[in-house]
Amino acid sequence: MTPATWEPGAGPRWVTDGGLETDVIFNHGVVLPHFAAYPLLDSLEGRALLTDYYAGYAAVANQAGASLLLETPTWRASPDWVATVGGPATDVHRVALESVVFLAALGESLLASGALPAGRHDYGSFRVSGTIGPRGDGYVAGEPAPSDEFAAYHSHQVAAFAESGAGRVAAYTLTTVSEAVGVVRAARGHRLDVAVSFTVETDGRLPDGTTLAEAVDNLWGQAAPDELLVNCAHPSHVAMALADDDTWASRVTGLRVNASRQSHAELDAAEVLDAGDIDDLVREHDSLAARLPNLDVVGGCCGTDVRHVAALWGVDA
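The line above is the sequence of Homocysteine S-methyltransferase; the predicted structure tokens follow.
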């Protein structure tokens, strides 16, 4: 929960990472089956890559005077996706546990080395958060289903994150209110803080056509999360959803944006990485952030790497 010493509107506190999967695939030449990054945990080489990856964002946090949100590489580690990748059902539990242990140890190592100074903030120099992805594709609206069905589905990952000691879970690239409600209910069942993040198309609407304003209002009417983010869209796309009198904007606590202005369909079909224009990204992000009074978490999504996130925080990569 938000510490009493932090006043909303005081500016973001948490640096998080960028587009892990696109960075690994396009910048490091590593094949990720079905866009799943969690298999990197199963090799020394993969863990070394992840260590270097997260260390880059620790350097950003250090320069920015912020804390580091270490989010597990488990966006594609829910039951259906584990089966698609070809692993046993038990991998859902195993991967969630191993990812939290790995990042907790990494955070402590960063502290010990001075990469993250201890005692900077009363809410800690780093926090480990369990990452959840959508049951479906994430770029298109998922199959309609009741929220209780989504709650049962996501409870597999949530339970493992709770067992691991992670106090927070965050579900990214959600395309429907029903799934967001299900994630919140699953997290509440395991007494975890929960963040949900919708994605939007170029018109500022969710992939199922729901306006962002409607989605936020409906979510709060059924199962309010602790944090609300928007991810996997260029800041200009998110800004399309805003009007001068939108009270829902005050509920947004985080942004993980794309560098590219392309649509989800264009990105899905792309064979080369669109890393966008960093100067344009910063301008649009700053303009959007000025309209989100409670922004607390800033990172990137598809097409971004440590250079983009550093620029968003106004520091060197």
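Note on the example: The two ends are 30 Å apart (CA to CA). The first strand starts at residue 14 and ends at 15.
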